[in-house]
Amino acid sequence: MEEYTAQRRVCIVGAGLVGALASVYFAQRGWHVDVFDTRPDPRVSQDSAHNQQRSINLAISTRGITALKQVGLGLAEEVLQAAIPMHGRMIHGLTGHQSSQAYGVFGQCINSFERKRLNISLLDAAESFSNVTMHFGYTLRACDLDQGAAKFEVRATGQEYVVTVDLIVGADGAYSTCRRQLMRRTRMDYSQTYISHDYCELTIPARQNEHGEQEYAMDPNHLHIWPRHTFMMIALPNKDRTFTCTLFMPKEQFEAIATPESLLAFYQTHFPDAIALIGRDQLTHGFFANPRGALMSVKCTPYHYQDKMVILGDAAHCMVPFYGQGMNCGFEDIQVLFRILDELQVTTTVPPPGQAKAVDSQWHSQMQRALDCYTRTRHRDAVAICDLAMYNYIEMRSSVVSWQYLFRKKLEDGLHKLFPSLIIPLYTMVSFTQIPYHKAIERHERQTRWLTRGLMGVGVVTTAALAALVRCYRK
Ligand code: FAD
């Protein structure tokens, strides 16, 4: 068992994207931070398993970037410099025809970034603080929440390691052990939904131009989509001029493709232009050798137990990846939590012996107020983005090619350009602002009502004008 220091102690379970950034926030406020992760340190480990169950790259947008900006340390600048801006979707039709749809009317973009590199930058930033200690190869097994104790199994020795702290932060991802511990001590409402679609990642290699230089095989400043109504493939650019493609498809359809011949026939029918881009051998190798991932959505509440534990990121709200918001939302969780802690002026120093009891109990009740407020504030936004992510799968794989969608997008974009703060498209609110997710949905519904009424009004006036014209003509 370890002893308390003069600083409040926090134990962060999970050194993934959210855990690593959270450790920077805690360190900056002066907490004594211990970070534990079951995996080996990605900075020294050659173990490719670190990336195996997750996407190789991901899109970071305004919410994520703002959370990085808030810590300073040049983190946001570093990420943006190494990221590839994607200004819109590039839709690939069946004939290979490509059409671009801008994300925002003011040139906004989302940014493609390598997951592992982002994780390493965050871990380096966290370790630059002397009050942060990282422990890799430590798996959380159980917690005694009332005592603030977390029990780990040390992979190297098989021994138990117990740490006692003021606060346990669960950032241990979709299959969170912290969440399970929380369930035992709170009346947690919980739902978990697997969608029937799996995903598999493939690579479009760089190609050589006439000068022998490596170049992108497609426009790198777009997120490429091959929408095929009941399934789709997407591709995001990487810095090494390759693209990472992700094929999303019903599990049964994956299973029905059992031979290289049937795979090529499938691609020939649905993604003919992608065969040349990926290459026949790479395609068959990637499809049969790369892991398949399942996709699920998790909603739960509360996110905390008294003043002892809080869960953040995928541990609290895992969503399907179709809005590119999982990590962005997780980063925003941290920002929201710290806004509340700062507003309530939760201190990080342990009172000196003598005044300990009164000050200590005040601290605990203040911390509990902060965590109560966090669950209350964040839950409706987490639910909203989980729902939006689910809805966006239909938009990406099907709606983007329907005339109704394209008409509404044109209309909304035009109105947004004219009245930037009155009409804001939903995608813009989610990806390029920090409007709380649940408010974005409410506003989108309001705008839909206005647009529908407006269009009906235009329809009535046009019909009346046409009828008047016809009457004049007949006279
Ligand atoms: P994780 O990244 O899962 O990290 C959890 C950490 O906890 C891991 O390091 C794990 O080893 C550790 N851990 C787990 N259990 C224990 C234990 N018992 N003890 C100790 N350590 C433990 N989001 C976006 O914002 N943009 C995108 O473009 C995007 N694309 C995606 C594409 C795909 C295909 C998928 C699947 C997800 C995508 N996401 C995207 C979502 C994003 O990956 C997650 O939201 C994000 O990784 C969540 O971070 P996290 O730190 O909460 O969890």
UniProtKB/TrEMBL annotation:
User: What is the name attached to this protein's record?
Assistant: Kynurenine 3-monooxygenase
Residue span, FAD-binding domain: 9-342
Its function? Catalyzes the hydroxylation of L-kynurenine (L-Kyn) to form 3-hydroxy-L-kynurenine (L-3OHKyn). Required for synthesis of quinolinic acid.
The Swiss-Prot or TrEMBL record lists the needed cofactor(s) as: FAD
Gene3D superfamilies xref list: FAD/NAD(P)-binding domain
Q: Which GO terms describe its molecular function?
A: FAD binding; kynurenine 3-monooxygenase activity
Organism this protein belongs to: Dimargaris verticillata
Q: What class of enzyme is it?
A: oxidoreductase
* Keyword Iron recorded: no
GO CC list: mitochondrial outer membrane
Protein family: Belongs to the aromatic-ring hydroxylase family. KMO subfamily.
